[in-house]
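Support reply, case 0932

Customer input (verbatim):
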Amino acid sequence: MARWGAWLVHHGLMAHDGKTLQIQGHQGRALGKEGTVDVTVTIRDNQPENVTISGQAVILFHAEWAITF
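Our regenerated output:
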């Protein structure tokens, strides 16, 4: 989602005020585990400078990885 917000700014595909773009996305509906993602893109010289992601999410699974050499 973060790349998507920066991509929208970079390619001029979504209106913004020249300083920030704020968008909200929804994830997990099809799995019955809905979450909301808030993306804020800080803009400088009409290009994305920083992306902040926040929101509420649902953990679908937890895993531990072991790598042995």
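We compared this against your earlier run and they match. Two observations from our side: The mean pLDDT is 89. The first helix runs from residue 2 to 10. Please reopen the case if you see a mismatch on your end.
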